[in-house]
Amino acid sequence: MTKPSFDTLRWTVLDSLTIAGRTYSRQAAQPGEILAFLVFPVIMTVLFGYVFGSAITLPNGGDYRDYLMPGIFMQVMAMTATAAATAVGEDMARGIIDRFRAQPIARSAVLVGRSVADLSMHLLSLAAMVLAGILLAGWRAHGSLGATAAAFGLLVLFGFAMIWVGTYIGLWVQSGAQADAATFGWLFPMTFLANTFVPIEGLPAWLKPVADWNPMSAVVAATRELFGNPTSVSSAWPLRHPVAASVLWSVAIIVVFVPLSVNRYRSTSR
Amino acid sequence: MIYVEGLRKRYKAKEALRGIDLEVPAGTVCGLLGPNGAGKTTAVRILATLLRPDAGRAEVAGLDVVRDADRLRFRIGLAGQHAAVDELLTGRRNLELFARLYHLSRAGARRRAGELLERFGLAEAGRRPVKEYSGGMRRRLDLAASLIVSPPVLFMDEPTTGLDPRSRMQLWDLLRDLVKEGTTLLLTTQYLDEADQLADQVVVLREGVVAAAGSPAELKRAVGGDRVRVLFREARDVDAGLRVLRATGSPELDGADARQVTVPAADGAQSLVRIAGALDAAGIPVEDLALRRPTLDEVFLRLTA
Ligand SMILES: Nc1ncnc2c1ncn2[C@@H]1O[C@H](COP(=O)(O)OP(=O)(O)OP(=O)(O)O)[C@@H](O)[C@H]1O
Ligand SMILES: [Mg+2]
């Protein structure tokens, strides 16, 4: 239909809101999930902060738990991909995506609505994580209010990017379980192949470039810098300019995966 | 209402449709029949704008399924092979969601959801999450979700697979009502009795081509007419019986049982009466005597073998 583009835009927004509403309703229908969401951070904080933390000393000094928390914040944002892939994969398997596609819904609304609703849910778990950090690990942001806000901004941007990675993967699989396997399997290890939990300086020479150029390292280094937490040092470009690098990485991921996902969703060749 | 010409579709190595022609007049029911992998789902997905054909043409409600897909989506309903509803939401919330996506107002969506729940016997269940529904209820909700804008054309892919006989008959009644109101229905099925019950026209697919098409009665006639099956009580009476039966037609011995003979029944039940009379007059005892009409099962097995 050749309608004025204003109408198209209006329906894209309204349809996205409707889809977002569905995500919230689903979440409200399973309060147990939310609880799991909130308990996970506590476990991670205690596990890493106290179990591993006692064995790790930072080469440049500083408190390990202060060093750790930005890493865990990033990990929470990275794992949004798994949740998105699982949800989209389930909708694919159940034929719900097909039903949406057979309805006259704006091109990108289903995925955009999902991603935005997903992001807002993950902000809740980020908030839980921050609270756990403050209460259980004595973590604090030492930077200015602006820098702290910027750090959270970077985390949110990265989380949004990772949701689209997961969305794209979810559109290729046949079930929620497959989606979980197709994301968690590489994503979770990847959060460790970075400066997330251990100082990057101690890595073997062949592994160090991987960690240096892992987008997750840039995000963690940037937030550590902005929060005024201890950080690890590397001469690689992304870690010398972590804020710029993490913005670039996130924007690049979004620019690649949003069109890929929308095309895959619309694709009439499957 | 549905017009298909030379439709082809290939998935990588597999050619799922190899040139299908099909025409379904408005207000009628077409049953797409075929064994697993025949291409039924592929055909429905193309007609419902989900899949682009490689070649050929398909028009639904006067709109091309590729070029006019956006407009067509307001005029079709699709109930896929699995009930495509959100398990976590209530039946009502599901319908309201899909209604909102057809751009009904909030109040309009609520009203339409209520009407459909009522019509499909889900008024009570509408308050409960779908994961607590039985298979039959789920199917009915799925059908309701396909009917939000009262589309003139409805596609259903194996609508009653997995339903118990009662739920199946319930769904058949609902579909008959829709057709009475003017809906054009194309449904795929593996159940011959379903096609027999509902379809004005049956199209049998086999390996991506149309193996046969026609009304259920025409297809049955093509496989062979009515027959009378005689089961004699004693094997030693068979020879005498054959002599009597030759007067009415050419009897054939049945391989399965030495005492069983079948005779073509050109006049249907009247032939049966005649044969019964002749055997009785000759004093030959009969254990069982039956008029057999060919079933769509036989059509199906013959055509898809
Ligand atoms: N996405 C796909 N990729 C590759 N091959 C496919 C795909 N979808 C279907 N096929 C193949 O195309 C053929 C036709 O499939 P289709 O699903 O249309 O059959 P069907 O008649 O609906 O079967 P069923 O009764 O099992 O539902 C099958 O051989 C199937 O394996
Ligand atoms: Mg099928």
Automatic annotation (TrEMBL), chain A:
GO molecular function, one term: ABC-type transporter activity
Pfam family, one: ABC2_membrane
Domain ABC transmembrane type-2: 32-268
Protein name, UniProt field: Transport permease protein
Source organism (scientific name): Nonomuraea phyllanthi
Main location class: membrane
Domain of life: Bacteria
Membrane topology: Multi-pass membrane protein
Cellular localization per UniProt: Cell membrane; Membrane
UniProt keyword annotation of Cell membrane present: yes
Transmembrane segments: 34-56, 68-89, 123-141, 147-172, 184-207, 243-262
PANTHER family: NODULATION PROTEIN J
Cell membrane in keyword set: yes
Keywords: Antibiotic resistance, Cell membrane, Membrane, Transmembrane, Transmembrane helix, Transport
UniProtKB/TrEMBL annotation, chain B:
Stored Pfam families: ABC_tran, DrrA1-3_C
Main subcellular localisation: membrane
PROSITE patterns reported in the protein's UniProt record: ABC_TRANSPORTER_1, ABC_TRANSPORTER_2
Compartment list: Cell membrane
Bilayer topology annotation: Peripheral membrane protein
SUPFAM superfamilies: P-loop containing nucleoside triphosphate hydrolases (SSF52540)
Keyword Transferase applies: no
GO annotation (BP), single: doxorubicin transport
Assigned GO CC terms: plasma membrane
Record-level Gene Ontology MF annotations: ATP binding; ATP hydrolysis activity
Keyword Translocase: yes
Keywords: Antibiotic resistance, ATP-binding, Cell membrane, Membrane, Nucleotide-binding, Translocase, Transport
Protein family according to the UniProt entry: Belongs to the ABC transporter superfamily. Drug exporter-1 (DrugE1) (TC 3.A.1.105) family.
UniProt cross-references to PANTHER family, sorted A to Z: ABC TRANSPORTER ATP-BINDING PROTEIN, DOXORUBICIN RESISTANCE ATP-BINDING PROTEIN DRRA
Official protein name in the record: ATP-binding cassette domain-containing protein
Organism name: Nonomuraea phyllanthi
